[in-house]
Amino acid sequence: MMDTPFNRRIHNFGAGPSLLPEAVLRELQESLWNYQGTGMGIMEINHRSPIFDQILSELEERFRTLLRLPSSKNILFLPGGASYQFAMIPLHLLAGAPAGFVHTGHWTQKAMDEAKRVGEICVVASSEKEKFYSLPSVENLETSPSLSYLHYCSNNTIEGTQWNSFKKKTNTALVIDMSSDFLSRDLDWSSFDLVFAGLQKNLGAASLSISVAEKYLFETKPKLTLPHFLHWSEHLAAGSRLNTPHTLGLYLALLMLRWIESSGGISSIEKRNQQKADEFYHFIDSSSLFWAPVQKEDRSRMNLVFDLRETNLALSQRLLKEANTAGFAALEGHRVRGGFRASFYNSQSLESVRELIQFLTEFERRA
Ligand SMILES: Cc1ncc(COP(=O)(O)O)c(C=O)c1O
Hints:
- With 367 residues, this protein is an alpha/beta fold.
- It has ten helices and 14 strands.
- Helix 3 crosses helix 4.
- The longest helix has 22 residues.
- The two termini are 36 Å apart.
- The structure holds pyridoxal-5'-phosphate.
């Protein structure tokens, strides 16, 4: 087949929505036209039909198995992405005591801004002084006042930091925004009270989220009188189908879960993610042109942030232009930070990472 812009794929290092595996895209393409011989495309199938019942129940079952979720945990698929949960969480849980935040960058700021509209918040630890290029010490969390819940962001997509473990204050519900590293590593799910994530990084569709929590949390009633659509318990009772759900996005998440399983499961994915990050950071740390501003032990394996050692706008722009021409897309840092960022979500292959390193090595030689 002739190589044209319409049949060629490039290396996509975007932070989200992000790259999807070729096998998943091909299956999605077929299902859009005719889902398993039904004569209907997946987007044309009723969300309460037996066909969709099956998709939703396989999706939930696969999540349970992959994450080894205890049966006491419930799963909710909700519209509105992770930001909608920034609003829903304080509406349900912020009462009687401030909400605690471990402040690690742009996305914890957004979550705090929403929570402040509902009640009092308390920053229990912050790395703002370090420009969020490290994670704060959480040793003294026990001494802070009682909290209605404690919010962490497990992977800071923009600043490029990632927690290895989460410290819980005794008896405080631990709430984790896992939007950008969900399903990227094996975790002990029994230690979290509520985990939520937008699906557009490791699971495909934007504007859709997953939340995992003990049933009693989802059954908490908001302290204010709110429309039913804002109640977790209503969504739970309706099995994530209080209204017409994002059927295509849920189906895509199912294809992604099947792909994770066929790739060897979470532990294989985790090993591959570690190797991709190790090879890339090794290159950056050995470079005389680039450097990584994030403290070594806090570096993200999903969003790898790097800069030129000496600021040079013209050279940065040249790099991005040459990268695009060579087929390496979306390497620019987030607009609030600048610099460069390469996102290595689960779908990113080790081969693509190695080709990127090769390109940057060549660029450095010519710079
Ligand atoms: C860590 C994190 N939290 C929250 C969000 C917001 O997600 P959404 O756009 O789905 O609301 C993002 C988006 O990139 C993110 O990376």
